[in-house]
């Protein structure tokens, strides 16, 4: 970070990007721990275990995954063509409505309405990371990208710590109201201060009939998707990263969708315990991303750090699966110090393996590949979690689903170890019909 201060423009652009995102992530994290109690109390009053809430949460992740496979690559393409700022504004503005519903009422009907609206919100909000990564790549030089993504994810972790600290001590009745105010602040700040880093493509064919415009939009979207796919497939580095992240998300998406509900059912954790565990993860994440990663990346490279982070993730998930006492989840959470390095390292590897005009396309396409895992992983994990938490479990191992998920993370480690990030990256030679730089929308 010290080197950036020599370039005031880089610092200014990054501050105006990361400050509102920090507030947005903090507001989102404030609601995470209390949502488990709210949904469980509304759908299964008087019970610690609520299969209905776990199933709804898994269904939410699955539906979001289906649409993110299409939306994420398109949003990445649009950010290359029309600029990062408008897409970021749309993505972060969608969080206001679902939490407003829970602030108004926490009855069963409003909880179901929250899930419906939140699904729509998450479909667009899921693109924030790929647009932000593309924005940082626009601003930061190649030799600083690993540090840039590390600081981005470090602030993400810091927002989690602050959000969970607020949730730990703020009465649950006020959490949604405070988070809504913060959600509103973010797009207002970006509108006023965030600068655009991409020159929008000129609009053409304004006089075309609507039927031809619609056909042209579909054709250009198809060609753009083919081009993004060729960018990834023709690069050995990007292809290997895609496989590694696919299997990583296949394990971790199921874990993330059921973890808090599993802890509530297995150890009767509540909002306070959830916040404490998430704070432990967040504090370690801040140290590793803001201080450790920028220091060691020049020495060992992103590949070694990515492999270490994946190995730590596998142990992290396995410990949750084998947890035999309430203190074990706290110990497992300490592995978050290394786990969180997966994202900044993968962002840096993807960015370095992509040309300057394909940053959004590559990040968005790989995000779409990762989203495929949301189709099956949460549903499978939910079924296993409900089965082994019930009285009909085949054997006594409440976290058996987490043990299965750890094997998927081990497979991702295998692909990460095969990475050859030092290969020179040249823009792939692609057929002229596929290499479209025109906007998706005329």
Automatic annotation (TrEMBL):
Designated name of the protein: Major facilitator superfamily (MFS) profile domain-containing protein
Signal peptide: 1-33
Tagged with keyword Transmembrane: yes
Pfam families for the chain: MFS_1
UniProt KW Transmembrane helix keyword: yes
GO cellular component, as recorded: membrane
Domain Major facilitator superfamily (MFS) profile: 13-424
Broad class of the protein's primary localization: membrane
Keyword tags: Membrane, Signal, Transmembrane, Transmembrane helix, Transport
Lineage, uppermost ranks: Eukaryota, Viridiplantae, Streptophyta, Embryophyta, Tracheophyta
Membrane topology note: Multi-pass membrane protein
Superkingdom to which the source organism belongs: Eukaryota
Chain segments annotated as transmembrane: 87-105, 112-137, 149-167, 174-195, 277-297, 304-324, 362-388, 400-419
Family note: Belongs to the major facilitator superfamily. Phosphate:H(+) symporter (TC 2.A.1.9) family.
Species assigned in the record: Cinchona calisaya
Gene3D superfamilies in alphabetical order: MFS general substrate transporter like domains (1.20.1250.20)
Intracellular or extracellular location(s): Membrane
């Amino acid at each position: 970070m010290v080197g950036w201060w020599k370039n005031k423009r880089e610092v200014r652009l990054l501050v105006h990007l990361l400050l509102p995102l920090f507030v947005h992530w903090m507001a989102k994290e404030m609601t995470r721990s209390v949502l488990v109690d709210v949904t469980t109390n509304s759908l299964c009053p008087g019970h610690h275990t609520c299969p209905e809430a776990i199933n709804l949460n898994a269904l939410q992740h699955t539906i979001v995954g289906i649409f993110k496979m299409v939306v994420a690559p398109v949003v990445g393409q649009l950010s290359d063509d029309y600029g990062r700022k408008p897409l970021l504004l749309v993505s972060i503005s969608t969080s206001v409505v679902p939490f407003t519903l829970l602030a108004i009422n926490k009855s069963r009907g409003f909880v179901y309405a929250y899930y419906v609206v939140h699904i729509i919100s998450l479909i667009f909000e899921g693109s924030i990371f790929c647009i932000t990564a593309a924005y940082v790549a626009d601003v930061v030089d190649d030799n600083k990208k690993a540090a840039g993504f590390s600081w981005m994810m470090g602030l993400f972790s810091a927002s989690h710590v602050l959000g969970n600290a607020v949730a730990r001590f703020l009465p649950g009745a006020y959490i949604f109201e405070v988070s809504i105010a913060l959600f509103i602040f973010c797009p207002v700040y970006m509108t006023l201060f965030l600068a655009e880093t991409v020159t929008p493509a000129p609009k053409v064919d304004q006089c075309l009939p609507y039927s031809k415009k619609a056909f042209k939009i579909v054709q250009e979207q198809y060609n753009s998707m083919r081009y993004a796919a060729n960018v990834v497939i023709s690069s050995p580095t990007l292809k290997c990263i895609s496989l590694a992240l696919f299997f990583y998300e296949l394990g971790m998406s199921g874990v993330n969708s059921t973890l808090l509900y599993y802890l509530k059912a297995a150890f009767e954790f509540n909002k306070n315990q959830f916040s404490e565990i998430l704070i432990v993860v967040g504090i370690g994440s801040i140290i590793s991303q803001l201080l450790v990663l920028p220091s060691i990346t020049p020495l060992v490279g992103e590949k070694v750090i990515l492999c270490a982070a994946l190995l730590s993730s596998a142990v992290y998930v396995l410990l949750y699966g084998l947890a035999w006492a309430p203190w074990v989840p706290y110990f497992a959470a300490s592995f978050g110090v290394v786990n969180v390095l997966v994202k900044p390292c993968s962002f840096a590897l993807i960015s370095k393996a992509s040309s300057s005009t394909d940053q959004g396309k590559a990040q968005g396409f790989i995000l779409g590949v990762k989203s495929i895992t949301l189709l099956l992983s949460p549903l499978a994990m939910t079924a296993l979690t409900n089965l082994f938490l019930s009285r009909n479990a085949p054997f006594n191992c409440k976290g058996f689903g987490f043990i299965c998920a750890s094997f998927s993370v081990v497979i991702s480690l295998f692909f990460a170890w095969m990475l050859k990030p030092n290969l020179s990256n040249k823009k792939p030679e692609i057929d002229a019909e596929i290499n479209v730089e025109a906007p998706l929308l005329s």
